[in-house]
Design goal:
Length: about 500
């Protein structure tokens, strides 16, 4: 079991109704009207000071018609908020907002006052309570967590608790996933994080009481090399019995990454085609034990961005690839990125380059893009951030200030990812628009959130958290493809 820190308490409470699928938590949301704020039609402001990385999820959920989003404040307007882990609840039907501070001044790595890697992961339990989990950027042996005090009220939180998987752990990120059929049908909540036993590797813990207490698991993906390569992973689950993992061998500045997929069910790990490749308890001995869906090389280096499941339970993924940078030192590459999209059709992966992504966000993190997000309720839709035209790669120069800025685009496919039609959600901006996310929200509308402002590094930014309600209707002239793919004879893999 985890070490209980001062102020923590055990709970023997058994959560009721946990056999309900976690995916129904976002249903019963009222239609949200369009809002206008922030200088462009349709954009609303959630938080005037917040940032996030993209390896902790869910960063936002929609419950009871309200948008709930977590982020890390930089203290740009109020120095007293610097490093605060915050959750904003926004009701777009009324425009009312409520901000909760989960942890004051959670510092970053190497003495930084704040760090976007510390942003919280949120999960809405089937009983109406919400849990948030977060940690420092590899500095401590614990992740922190808080639960809401009352079901259905995301503005009132219980006192903070913390879990220590082991004394030597150095934890970063949290990813919360619920499997309702485990634990003899009472449900089990997983937290996938990085850094068990100082490993830098994807790791996990689980809770059989909805996050009240935790048990340490193991390293999920090992890399048997002297250098501590750290696989980067994205996660998704069906809410009942399966978790999918989409991952690389390491950080793209350290490894010419490929991209892999594996899934977990009933104690075992499986390749995409259902072949058993190991157990969750033992983890993968090396990344190549999973299914490779993209082969990297020095001029094509992958980094994972997002993964979700279609209505048949098949995964679809999005990721970026840095092009033509072989032999360049850190800080001199990152001038040409592309976005790719892949779907498992039941037999094989269909993988396509779908858009130009533009330049790195800043020198030194040459693989940081504006990023790409999937719609979890519509496999035919993606959202990207790019400082170039996604179709041509031509730089986007704003008429407002004559500078290049990252803009947000919506992409729709009518042929399962082979071709795309792009429309802009932002244009001619006076600031960058980066790192879009799309929380689950079944229905004919989706909500897209992103960060708007100036991003200098992950410990130096001035960003708003903003959003837009977007209709799920296909773009004119683009037919809607079926949510389930027909099998293909040949995949378009690199």
């Amino acid at each position: 079991m985890f070490t209980l820190l001062p102020g923590m308490r055990k709970s023997g409470k058994t959560l009721r109704a946990f056999v309900v699928l976690a995916t129904v938590q976002a249903v019963a949301c009222a239609l949200i009207p369009w809002c206008v704020a922030g200088g462009q039609a349709g954009i609303f402001l959630l938080n005037d000071d917040g940032g996030w990385s993209w390896f902790e999820d869910e960063r936002a959920v929609v419950c009871g018609g309200k948008i709930i989003a977590g982020s890390v404040a930089a203290g740009v307007h109020d120095p007293g908020r610097c490093g605060d882990i915050e959750v904003v609840v926004y009701d777009p039907a009324t425009g009312q907002k409520s901000l909760s501070r989960l942890h004051g001044g959670l510092s970053g790595g190497r003495g930084d006052e704040y760090d976007d890697h510390n942003s919280p992961a949120l999960f809405a339990r089937p009983d109406g309570h919400i849990i948030a989990a977060y940690s420092k950027h590899g500095l401590e042996n614990r992740f922190y967590y808080r639960l809401t005090a009352r079901a259905g009220d995301p503005t009132d939180w219980q006192p903070e608790r913390a879990c220590v998987p082991s004394e030597t752990s150095r934890i970063t990120y949290s990813n919360l996933h619920w499997l309702g059929l485990e634990n003899e049908g009472r449900g089990r909540l997983y937290n996938f994080f990085r850094g068990l036993n100082g490993s830098f590797k994807p790791s996990y813990a689980w809770s059989d009481d909805g996050g009240e207490s935790w048990v340490a698991g193991n390293v999920l993906i090992n890399v048997p090399t002297t250098f501590k390569h750290r696989p980067y992973a994205k996660y998704t689950s069906n809410g009942t019995d399966t978790v999918h993992f989409f991952y690389t061998e390491g950080h793209p500045r350290d490894f010419d990454n490929s991209a892999y997929h594996v899934y977990y069910r009933a104690g075992s790990l499986f390749r995409s085609d259902g072949a058993v490749t190991g157990t969750l308890a033992a983890g993968l001995g090396e990344p190549t034990e999973g299914t490779r869906l993209f082969r990297g090389d020095p001029d094509n280096v992958a980094w994972v961005s997002d993964i979700h499941l279609d209505s048949a339970g098949c995964p679809y993924v999005a990721y970026s690839v840095q092009k033509n940078a072989a032999g360049l030192p850190s800080g001199q590459s990152g001038q040409d990125h592309r976005y790719r999209y892949a779907r498992w059709d039941g037999r094989q992966w269909r993988d396509y380059e779908i858009a130009y992504a533009g330049r790195r966000l800043y020198a030194g993190e040459d693989d940081y893009t504006g990023n790409i997000a999937l719609d979890p309720d519509d496999p035919d839709t993606v959202y990207i951030s790019a400082d170039v035209d996604p179709k041509t790669g031509q730089p986007l120069v704003s008429k407002r200030d004559q500078r290049r800025h990252y803009e947000v685009f919506k992409g729709i496919t009518g042929d399962h990812g082979a071709t795309w039609r792009w429309t802009s959600l932002t244009s001619d901006s006076g600031a960058d628009n980066i790192r879009p996310i799309v929380p689950a929200w079944p229905g004919d509308r989706s909500v897209v959130l992103w960060l708007r402002g100036t991003y200098r590094t992950y410990t130096d930014y001035d960003l708003d958290v903003v959003g837009m309600i977007v209709k799920r209707d296909p773009a004119p002239g683009v037919p809607r493809s079926r949510s389930v793919m027909p099998p293909a004879h040949e995949a378009d893999n690199h």
